[in-house]
Amino acid sequence: MEDQIESQKRRGVQSKEDLISERTGSLGCIGWFIVIMSGLFTALLFPITIWFCVKIVQEYERAVIFRLGRITDRKAKGPGIFFVLPCTDSCIKVDLRTVSFDIPPQEILTKDSVTVSVDGVVYFRVSNPIASVANVSNADFSTRLLAQTTLRNVLGTKNLAELLSDREGIAHSMQSSLDEATDDWGIKVERVEIKDVKLPHQLQRAMAAEAEAAREARAKVIAAEGEMNASRALKEASLVIAESPSALQLRYLQTLNSIAAEKNSTIIFPLPIDVMNHFMRK
User: Fold this and answer.
1) Global confidence as pTM
2) Interior angle at CA 96, CA 175 and CA 21, nearest 5
3) I need a labelling partner for 132 at 20 to 30 A (CA). Which of 62, 144, 170, 261 fits?
4) What are phi and psi of 278, to 5 degrees?
5) What are the residues whose beta carbons fall under 8 Å from the beta carbon of 238, sequence distance 6 or more?
């Protein structure tokens, strides 16, 4: 599998190199004649044409130069100052800074037939200025459209539980798909994030009711476990008191102490059943 991926990458790189080499071919006799005439014209009118020959690009920009419709070099010019022929050369500036854009909310049908609205954000930059100019008419707009379709395609293979719990995995899968698809355009997708997942109101109420029922069930189980543990503790305490009759008298005195601390006016004196049985026999 890895060998196939490597071979596909090599074929892609080779095809791009062949494409650029076709564009950077010879100008021909007429083309060189026009270039020479343009150079002579520039030299004759040097004080004036110097302002048309000098171009400046910023540190974050690169310039792709076309000479008579052909790319002059396999590497973009810049940053800094460079010279062009005013009559035959034209240049296109490409911004290399990272660009971010929001993916509009997309109505998506998940794998388990639930309709949700999902939006996200994508960060990308131009990694190959020549490919971004020569291989696609508008790299920025094309990347935006591809991000929308990729979001729909990736989320269409996930169910609702995976969509809500595995956002990081979904974002990584989208980034890999977008990066692979835009590689021929000279675009590098740096990051993809899922911003918000909006569920229908009926589904939200159903999920809230389900969660509330689950919480109530867990609360009843915890209460039952507490009662069971308490009954076991009372059973052990009764066994200890039964083995030592004086322990019951101490417990009685402790109860009286607790009642007296609360400043109550009523005190209950329990009578042992054995004493009552003695009077009943008489």
Assistant:
1) 0.65
2) 90
3) 170
4) -65, -40
5) none
Q: Taking the CA atoms of the chain, what radius of gyration do you get in angstroms?
A: 41
Distance CA 102, CA 154 (A): 17
Contact indicator for 70, 98 with CB cutoff of 8 Å: no
Which of 14-23, 60-69, 265-274 is predicted most confidently?
60-69
Two structure tokens written together for 130:
């020549």
Q: How many CB atoms lie within 10 A of CB 282?
A: 4
Q: What is the side-by-side order of every strand in the sheet holding 61-67? A: 70-71, 61-67, 89-95
Alpha-carbon distance of 91 to 53, in angstroms, equals: 11
Report how far residue 281's alpha carbon sits from residue 265's, in angstroms, rounded to the nearest whole number: 34
- Cα–Cα distance measured from residue 255 to residue 248, given in angstroms and rounded to the nearest whole number: 11
Closest CA to 106 of 98, 94, 118: 118
Cα separation, 158 vs 168, in Å, equals 13
Closest CA to 154 of 136, 144, 166, 139: 166
How long is the chain?
A: 282
For β-strands 99-109 and 115-126, DSSP reports them as: antiparallel
Which helix (H) or strand (E) segment holds residue 192: the answer is strand 187-198
Residue 270 in tokens = 């329990």
Distance CA 268, CA 282 (A): 25
